[in-house]
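INPUT
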Amino acid sequence: MNAEIIAVGSELLLGQIVNSNAKYLSEQMAHLGINVYHHSVVGDNPDRLTDVLKVATNRSNLIIMTGGLGPTKDDLTKETVAALLGKKLVYDPETEKRMDMYFKQRNRIMTENNRKQAMIIEGSHVFTNEHGLACGIGIKTSEYQIIMLPGPPRELIPMFNKFVTPYLKGQISKVNHIQSRVLRFFDIGESQLVEIIDDLLESQTNPTIAPLASGGEVTLRLTVMGEGEEKNRNSLDEVEEKILSRLGEFFYGYGEDTLFENIVKHLKEKNKTIASAESITGGLFATEVTAINGASLVFPGSIICYSNAAKRSLLSVSNEILNDEGAVSHTCAKELAEKVRINFQSDYGISFTGVAGPDPLEGKPPGVVYMGIASKDRTVSYELKLAGSRQNIRERSAKYGAYYLLQWMRKETKKVDE
Amino acid sequence: MNAEIIAVGSELLLGQIVNSNAKYLSEQMAHLGINVYHHSVVGDNPDRLTDVLKVATNRSNLIIMTGGLGPTKDDLTKETVAALLGKKLVYDPETEKRMDMYFKQRNRIMTENNRKQAMIIEGSHVFTNEHGLACGIGIKTSEYQIIMLPGPPRELIPMFNKFVTPYLKGQISKVNHIQSRVLRFFDIGESQLVEIIDDLLESQTNPTIAPLASGGEVTLRLTVMGEGEEKNRNSLDEVEEKILSRLGEFFYGYGEDTLFENIVKHLKEKNKTIASAESITGGLFATEVTAINGASLVFPGSIICYSNAAKRSLLSVSNEILNDEGAVSHTCAKELAEKVRINFQSDYGISFTGVAGPDPLEGKPPGVVYMGIASKDRTVSYELKLAGSRQNIRERSAKYGAYYLLQWMRKETKKVDE
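OUTPUT
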């Protein structure tokens, strides 16, 4: 089955909203093993919509449309599809009944506009809308099928999950079982990573290997299509082993958990706590950690010592260090990590001091960053030389901190298959 | 000019990322007065991309492409466009020089794959990439023009702002002078705001009024098209006055400056400093403030007192307050704001304490937040009851803090027209 997704709505073309439905539906299609080759967005205009539909029906056999099912004059998805297929619109008694109830419950009067939403294309399949008025519609010809879904994600997502997924699954051969595994890497760029496993990417068929870079992390999604779960898992293991034999040093975990989610998870498992002393990152490390549910179990807090006066008064960094070696130094990073650990009485302390830019600091250029990690027994420091914008340098500093901390703590990670 | 946007990348069709570039570019096109009639997404496949391009070049005269300019074999936007136009790819010496420098600075070796990124289509216009390797390319035929931009938003957005916007503005007829002004509002939802000025929105022609909600802030962009700058400014003033007579209490500034940028600007102007004590926000306020250039002049630091032990030991909140009124209380918020101000010897102190969820705290439900603002002379506290996810509650708390602080400091704001 070759699918494509058409979103109807001028608000998308004006840049007022992002097409999150296309992302959601594509993800669902991937899970179903259905290939999606195109997304389109077109405005509330019958001629342009007809043209887009003609192109789509010539190249795809499953077309999912979103939006344009509302009550206003602008909403014309059903009308346009019906005209293209030479079919009539008819009232769906079930939907009419549901709408009557909806308005009665709310003590509101149903307008003629609203009643339009109870119309379906003759001979179509109706998907109930449990979170709004517009029902979804599926219509088949000998060459293709079109599924029309309401635009608001809070209506579309539950409708798709509950009614459209089983409808499509019923049409897909049961022979193939799809399974995937995500490997996560840090401290390596996408192009460098791709080059290292170039031959594996070239020769991939089943499992497939899909690299993706996002927020400074690179992931590889391995997807296998086969007859049984165990056989699939073995294929995934085999490819993973080949990949990790080359990229193991950059690997930090499986699945959808980010670096910071991994940190909170590991600290919880080991029953340990961490506090941060942040200069260059200005609270970014703490913000990322506390964004995660249950962070309070592992994170008592942080001191953001943006000024040198704060480093001195709140974390007792000596004048000697600040004057002789500077705030941007290995020694200061170590001192901050140790002192913040003691201040918060935590198991670990982590610190960030450096130059975010755009101006140099203490004669050091933007991108020079020192990080310290301290436990009761030992303290280490790291030097980074990052490039990029102020915000980029700050974000990557926080991530490197998370990565080095994870390396410090981690012995093993658990495999997660989807 | 009729525009359309084509995104190239299988990761979009797999639903791994959302097409935020299409939203951003559509918004920018709307500001430039250029109509966008279609968005498309197509995978890293030369045949399908060629087909999509053929459809596009038949119906639009400005085609903006995003993605597929990277170093891997999958990246084939330039190659496909060149083949369609019957043109050759050539090395751009400027881009080569920039790339050499990039790799030298990072002590990394440039691979052959990377060198591919220095290639452009013969006879094309080059848009410099100041945040990555792939340059942008603009190529014209007698019937249409194609602009190719890198996929990562952190590269695309600055490139578009700095280089593509003036390039397109130069092509738009100079007869009509477009001028716009953005009014910024907080503490009011988009639909409520729209309802209050419904009649103005209904009757708008020139200037137009475009509402936009983003990150909890609502903006109104007034755009006037006319013959002269002064006449335009008068029209904008007139509409603005009508709007602010109804919405003045929610208005906080002009232009693209966010709440936090406004705060840093105001503090700098008044030569004042602020420190934060953060529990629920976990460093988010500090992170937002320190994201802004020159924050070190106005922000000495913050204490993130996530645990009650930290509130006690680092900010001397008394056991009486924590036990009797609780950490989530007006009294605790005031105490935190006053103590952090003294700790950092700053002009203002601001504090955040509350329940981010998903679980209740001290018998209070998620969304209950107390904020304190302290100066030398007085301390106030605010209570918020927010709904939404953990991250949403945290973000809006930090924004309300910024908004109340701004109200405290602000007497007047300066008009900014674009």
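end of record. Chain B has three domains: 2-169, 177-254, 259-409.
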